[in-house]
Predict the structure of Acylphosphatase.
Amino acid sequence: MLKRISFKVEGRVQGVFFRDTTVRNAQTNGLTGWVRNESDGSVAGEAQGPPPKLDAFVEYLHQGPRAARVEKVDTKELSVRDDEQGFKQK
């Protein structure tokens, strides 16, 4: 069974390699999806995979890389996509 979420991370999350480490974390957990910087200074994306791996990924989002200062993480459940491969930066 797979699950898909959207996420938005707010705080000091741009210019601190948040996207790069998010991609690596997602790939390590075998997730598919994407991540990008938003114009409001947040980082947003979607991730899909087995619920335990997705839970570990969301835990990572609450910390991010060492230089990040995460203030808020919002997630929302989405419909699963069957045709997606890999996890990428947009």
